[in-house]
Write a structure and sequence with these properties.
With 120 residues, the protein is of the alpha/beta class. The protein has one domain: Glycogen Phosphorylase B (Rossmann fold, 3-Layer(aba) Sandwich), CATH 3.40.50. It has three helices and five strands. The chain has a five-stranded parallel beta sheet. Strand 1, helix 1 and strand 2 form a beta-alpha-beta unit. The longest helix is centred in the middle third of the chain and has 22 residues. 29% of the residues are buried. The mean pLDDT is 97.
Length: 120
């Protein structure tokens, strides 16, 4: 099975789940995260970087929303590169709190996405 994990603070809440799947040789596990996060045995880690920070002119009520959109766009760019390589996950497991999962269904429309809704 091909699994894609997405969390800005790898491994975050997936610290047991991702390695569990990676321990089975038949599985391919990819983890998309922010730069500087730890490597995990048997897991391909890919870093994303937003194109920019939220604008200083953005109303303070909307800054986190803008940041989430920028994170989602950055993850989508990484996901498109993975897709061009031929990677097609059987399932996506993502923390949804920072916007990273916003556009993943644009890349892999038919792939089930499980969202970890920590704050909702």
């Amino acid at each position: 099975m091909k699994l894609l994990f997405v969390h800005q603070n790898c491994p975050g809440q997936f610290k047991h789940l991702a390695p569990f799947f990676a321990a089975t040789a038949e599985n391919e596990v990819v983890f998309i995260t922010r730069p500087g996060k730890p490597d995990l045995a048997g897991i391909r880690k890919i870093e994303y970087r937003p194109a920019r920070q939220p604008s200083g002119s953005t109303h303070r009520y909307l800054r986190l929303t803008e940041e989430g959109v920028l994170n989602g766009q950055a993850v989508a760019r990484v996901a498109m590169a993975l897709k061009r390589e031929g990677f097609r996950p059987d399932i996506i497991i993502a923390h949804v709190g920072w916007g990273e999962a916003l556009y993943l269904k644009e890349v892999w429309a038919d792939t089930p996405l499980i969202g970890y809704f920590e704050w909702y």
